[in-house]
Amino acid sequence: MRNDQKRAANIIRAAESAISKMRDPAKRDAADAKLRLAQKAMLERHPTAMPKTTRAQPSRHYDLDVDR
């Protein structure tokens, strides 16, 4: 099952990359909507098989001590 998750994550990542490079906003929005529908369908069929592909969050481990 883990290999299926990795494969699905790679496919989703590639699709998101291709969508982000589209120049026509209407086509980009339509492709993004189709990807989200596909992800939703995958999750409904196999709840545990859905890869965890969250967008990167900025790091919160920065130094706030300015007096150094």
Q: What percent strand?
A: under 5%
What is the element string, with H for helices and E for strands?
A: HH
Distance between the termini: 50 Å
Got a strand count?
0
Radius of gyration: 17 Å
- Return the average pLDDT rounded to an integer: 76
Number of helices: 2
Outline, from the CA principal axes?
A: flat
Label the structural class.
mainly alpha
Helix content: 55-70%
Low-pLDDT segments, ≥5 res: none
Biggest β-sheet strands, sense, barrel: none
Secondary structure blueprint with pairings:
Blueprint: H1 2-20, H2 25-45
Helix pairs in contact: 1-2
Structure, explained:
- The protein has 68 residues and is mainly α.
- It has a domain at 2-45.
- Helix content is 59%, strand content 0%.
- The chain has helices at residues 2-20, 25-45.
- Helix 1 packs antiparallel against helix 2 (25-45).
- The chain is flat.
- The model has no long low-confidence stretch (mean pLDDT 76).
